[in-house]
Write a structure and sequence with these properties.
Order of helices and strands: HHHEEEHEHHHH
Protein name: ImmA/IrrE family metallo-endopeptidase
CATH topology of the largest domain: Arc Repressor Mutant, subunit A
Largest sheet: 4 strands, mixed
Structural class: alpha+beta
Bound molecules: zinc ion
Number of strands: 4
Radius of gyration: 16 Å
Oligomer: single chain
Number of domains: 2
Strand order of the largest sheet: 1-3-2-4
Shape: globular
Strand content: 5-15%
Length: 176
């Protein structure tokens, strides 16, 4: 294995874990409290510094996800899903602090091992909150016009995510 291999994100494992977890549900939005409980984690909302999205604490068997209470519900949901991604995918430190993770981090050549974990946690969050299978059914069966702002807003709110996160997800899945 070369150094370049080690800094490349891996998406397959996260996608499989997310697919297993969404079997708990028949439709969106995914209940993150139930997912957290299933994974033995507690979710807490606290007042945090504005630039801190979330914190993942691991102490023996205890796992606590702290999310910034001043962020929008959609952003809190993405943060929780992102921290669940770290919990499921990365061994990590006892305390992991996320300061506005870089969603658009794409330059693999300059990615550090830490960047790779952030990319993987974001990919897991997208797979968990906006499962490709559900989106495909919604978009194809209900003929949602993705150029219509109202339709995009309705789709995002059905999944409990921001319109921006939904637009990014649909582009990543090549719907747009
Ligand atoms: Zn992170």
């Amino acid at each position: 294995m070369t150094a370049a291999d080690r800094v490349r994100p891996s998406y397959v494992r996260g996608r499989r874990r997310a697919e297993d977890l969404i079997r708990l549900f028949s439709q969106p939005p995914v209940d993150l409290n139930l997912v957290a409980t299933t994974l033995g984690a507690e979710i807490r909302t606290y007042e945090l510094k504005p630039d801190i999205s979330g914190i993942l604490y691991r102490d023996g068997e205890r796992r606590v996800i702290v999310v910034n209470q001043d962020h929008s519900i959609e952003r809190q949901r993405f943060t929780i899903a992102h921290e669940l991604g770290h919990l499921v995918l990365h061994r990590g430190q006892p305390v992991h602090v996320d300061e506005g993770f870089r969603v658009n981090l794409r330059d693999r050549r300059s990615a550090t091992a830490e960047d790779v974990e952030e990319i993987e946690a974001n990919a897991f969050a997208a797979d968990l909150l906006m499962p490709a299978k559900w989106l495909r059914a919604d978009v194809e069966q209900h003929f949602i016009d993705l150029t219509d702002d109202n339709a995009m807003h309705a789709l995002a709110s059905r999944y409990g995510v921001s319109t921006q996160a939904m637009a990014y997800r649909l582009a990543a899945l090549s719907f747009t």
